[in-house]
Structure formats: C-alpha cells, structure tokens
C-alpha cells in the first residue's frame, strides 16, 4: 500500500526553527483556530469535533466530542490534559510538548471554551524537564499575547491554564489516578462508576480529560472544519495520527500518517518511515499499540493502522507505540522485562494486580535465568487468567483500572506464539540468545 499524500496536521511545525516560541507559532498560522472558535457558539465547536470523529489519542480511543457531550450539567467544569505519557516506547506527546507547546495550548483553550471550563490543567510527566520548561514558557507568552487569562482576544471568555508536573508514576496516566494526583493525593485510580470524570472529576466537579495529541488536533479541526478531518482515513479511524516506531528498525522515530490507509508494513519498511528492519533481519513479532497490547506476528504486518481492524484482530492501537522485534529477539526476555515494568508500576490498590504481577515477574525471571520448569508455562497462564478471566481482548476486569488486566497481554502472546522458545529455556537451562 503506497503512502498517502495527506499533509501532517500536528507535526507540521516540528522542523521550523525555534518552533516552540510564540513568534514561530504566529508566523505559521498559530491561534487562527482559537480566534475563529471564539466567534462560534460553544455547541457548534463540539459539533465540529463530533463531525470530525476525532478519537482520543491517549490509548482508549474514545470519541473526544462524545466525551465532552457527556459532562454532567453543573458548575464549575474543569479541563484536564493528560501529558503523563508513561507507556514504555511511547514518545509522541513528549515530542509535541517540546516542539509545539503553543499548538497544545491553543487546543486546550478551544476545548475550554467549548465545554465552559473554569480552569484548565495540563499534567506533564515529571521526567519531561524540557517539555515542562517550554510549555510553561508558552503559557507565559500566551498570557502576554492575550490568548490566556481574562477576556481572551476581547471575546468576553476568560480562563486560566495551570501546568502541573507529575512525579513519574505510570499509574497517573490513568485519568482518575491523574485527578487524584492533581488533588494532592496518592495516584490511586477511582472506582467507576460513579467516578467517571465527566460526572464526578477534579474536586468533585464535572471534568473533561483529554490527551496532549488530542488537544493538538483541535486548532486544525476548527480552522478547516470537522468534515475535512473526517475525510482523512476510513470509517471510525479518521484524520492522521502520530505513531512512535521503535525497536529493531533502521529509522526509529515519530511518524504522522493518515489512519487506515497506511499499513504496519508501510510504517516499518517505507524508506520515508522506518526504513526496514536493521541488518536486513527478519520480522519476528511486533507490538501494535504500546506494551499493554497483545503482540502480532509477521502474518499481520499488512494490516492497516485502523482502530477497528486492529481491535477485531485481538489487539489495539492504544498509545500509538509500535515496537518491532527481529528474529534475534529473545521472546522470554522481552516478556519478562514488560512484566517487571508492570509489577514495579502497580499502585498496589487491587490484590490481583499487586500480588499477581509479583508472582508473574518471579516465574518469568526464573524461566529467563534457566531455572524454570515445564509446568511454569501453565502456571503463568493460570495466574494471568485470575487477573483477566478468559484471557480475551479487551480483557475482563478484576481491578479498578486496566493496568492489572493488561499484564497478561505480553505473557499470553509470548507463550502462545513462542512456546518452543520458552521450553528451550527450561530444557537447556539457559537463554539460547545469550
């Protein structure tokens, strides 16, 4: 499938010198979308976003406009922007924070106006030091320019924006844990229902929670119209999207492509994108949507980057992270490292996640170190089944958030796809890959 000629939307300024400054942003058409939005009724903005069918770019893929429409009728309303991005091998929001913070901010202001937010909070991962610095500078520039604060551009609309650094906890990427963190508490996810943020969110008020990349699309959508965005892509997968490509490829990086019209093979092999697998090696497996997602094999590499197609195949596009593993990869080691990450990052609130992740990590470690037993493979799947009954996708919930039920994804994929490799570790007492 050839690459389409769709122009980038959210990365179009990345190559501009000092793209993070207000001067560069204005010179490239910045804040035009906000000025237009302020002449529209808030309901009309929401309708444009609904027309665009913009899916949230944070992982769940829920329609942004529909999320806004679900707000409980009450005051005040808050807007929270999730810039935590702690899924391993996902680095698109990090790039946007560093290279185009004004675009994020303009999207935040458009959304705040549309939902009538009293205040907007941008929650940024603690490790993103440069991103925090540039976003904070952009907010200060925007205040001086009149795009933030009281009576924005003489429209009568006022809103303040707060940049809030997190402390680097993976669990705070979950929207209710993020809200708890914003309130100064430990980042424990809330039970839903009743604590859907649209009903009971920040400080008990109705709250919209959207991702950084989601916000970055709004200026273009308002300037060009929701129908123009919906004309890109196919079906529910509209517009363009950034995919963070990493692993055993010649050109790892962030690539914005038209959804549903580009395949995983295009992303990995096209010279303008991934440039092929390193050293001419063979593809062994790839993870299509962050390490929470079930793995795919070479037989699925021609699948389109389509939300529904990937879902029907038993995985997800998730955070937009595609991790490529070539034939020299030890599947056991890859599974163990992913499991170890989830065990370390479990908040500990729910027993299946807190205890189950630890048991899984210990069993995976002993297999990787050559001390495993054949029955460990069934033991792994049995423990996984207790965390996510049935081991289907999407997973069944036994915990408050989806961190726990996401843990079995890589284990089930590894054991089912590469059982012989697991058995080789057990029988030979060592990793065959060294």
Q: What is the number of helical segments per DSSP (H or I, 4+ residues)?
A: 18
CATH architecture of the largest domain: 3-Layer(aba) Sandwich
CATH superfamily of the largest domain: NADH-ubiquinone oxidoreductase 51kDa subunit
Described by its quaternary structure, the protein is single chain
CATH domain class of the largest domain? Alpha Beta
Structure description:
- With 434 residues, the chain is α/β, with parallel strands linked by helices.
- The protein folds into 3 domains: 22-230, 3-Layer(aba) Sandwich (Rossmann fold); 233-326, Ubiquitin-like (UB roll) (Roll); 331-428, NADH-ubiquinone oxidoreductase 51kDa subunit, iron-sulphur binding domain (de novo design (two linked rop proteins), Up-down Bundle), CATH 1.20.1440.230.
- 41% of the residues lie in helices and 12% in strands.
- It has helices at residues 22-27, 32-37, 42-52, 64-69, 92-99, 101-115, 129-145, 175-182, 212-224, 226-230, 264-269, 307-312, 331-345, 351-368, 375-387, 403-406, 408-417, 419-428; strands spanning 78-83, 119-124, 160-165, 207-211, 233-234, 237-238, 240-247, 253-258, 283-287, 321-326.
- The strands form 3 sheets. It has a 4-stranded parallel beta sheet, with helices on both faces. It has a 4-stranded mixed beta sheet with strand order 8-7-10-9, with no helix packed on it. The chain has a two-stranded antiparallel sheet with strand order 5-6.
- Helix 7 (129-145) links the parallel strand 2 and strand 3.
- Helix 5 packs across helix 7 (129-145), helix 6 crosses helix 9 (212-224) and helix 15 runs antiparallel to helix 17 (408-417).
- The mean pLDDT is 95.
């Amino acid at each position: 499938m050839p690459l389409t000629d769709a122009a980038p939307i959210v990365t179009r300024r990345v190559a501009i010198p000092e793209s993070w400054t207000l001067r560069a942003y204005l010179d490239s058409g910045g804040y035009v979308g906000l000025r237009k939005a302020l002449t529209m009724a808030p309901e009309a903005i929401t309708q444009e976003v609904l027309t665009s069918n913009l899916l949230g770019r944070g992982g769940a893929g829920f329609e942004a406009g529909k999320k806004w429409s679900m707000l409980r009728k009450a005051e005040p309303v808050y807007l929270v922007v999730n810039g935590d991005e702690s899924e391993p091998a996902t680095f698109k929001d990090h790039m946007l924070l560093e290279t185009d913070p004004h675009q994020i901010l303009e999207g935040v202001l458009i959304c705040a106006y549309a939902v009538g937010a009293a205040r907007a909070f941008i929650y940024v991962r603690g490790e993103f030091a440069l991103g925090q610095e540039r976003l904070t500078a952009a907010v200060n520039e925007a205040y001086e320019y009149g795009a933030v604060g009281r009576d924005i551009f003489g429209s009568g609309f006022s809103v303040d924006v707060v940049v809030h650094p997190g402390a680097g906890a993976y669990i705070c990427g979950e929207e209710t844990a993020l809200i708890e963190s914003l309130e100064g508490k430990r980042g424990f996810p809330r039970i839903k229902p009743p604590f859907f943020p649209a009903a009971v969110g920040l400080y008990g008020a109705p709250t919209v929670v959207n991702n950084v990349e989601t916000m970055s699309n709004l200026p273009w959508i308002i300037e060009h119209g929701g129908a123009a965005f919906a004309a890109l892509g196919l079906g529910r997968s509209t517009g363009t999207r950034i995919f963070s490509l990493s692993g055993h490829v010649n050109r790892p990086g962030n690539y914005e492509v038209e959804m549903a019209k580009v395949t995983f093979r295009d992303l990995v092999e096209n010279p303008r994108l991934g440039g092929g697998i390193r050293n001419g090696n063979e593809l062994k497996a790839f993870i299509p949507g962050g390490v929470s997602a079930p793995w795919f094999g070479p037989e699925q590499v021609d699948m389109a980057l389509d939300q529904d197609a990937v879902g029907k195949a038993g995985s997800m596009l998730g955070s937009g992270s595609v991790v490529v593993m070539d034939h020299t990869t030890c599947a056991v080691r890859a599974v163990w490292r992913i499991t170890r990450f989830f065990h370390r990052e479990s908040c500990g609130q729910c027993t299946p996640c807190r205890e189950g992740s630890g048991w899984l990590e210990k069993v995976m470690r002993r297999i990787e170190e050559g001390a495993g037993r054949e029955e460990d493979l069934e033991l792994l799947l049995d423990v996984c089944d207790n965390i996510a009954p049935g081991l289907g996708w999407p997973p069944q919930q036994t915990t408050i958030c989806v961190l726990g039920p996401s843990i079995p994804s890589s284990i089930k994929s590894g054991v089912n796809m590469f059982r012989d490799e697991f058995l080789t570790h057990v029988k030979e007492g060592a990793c065959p890959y060294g």
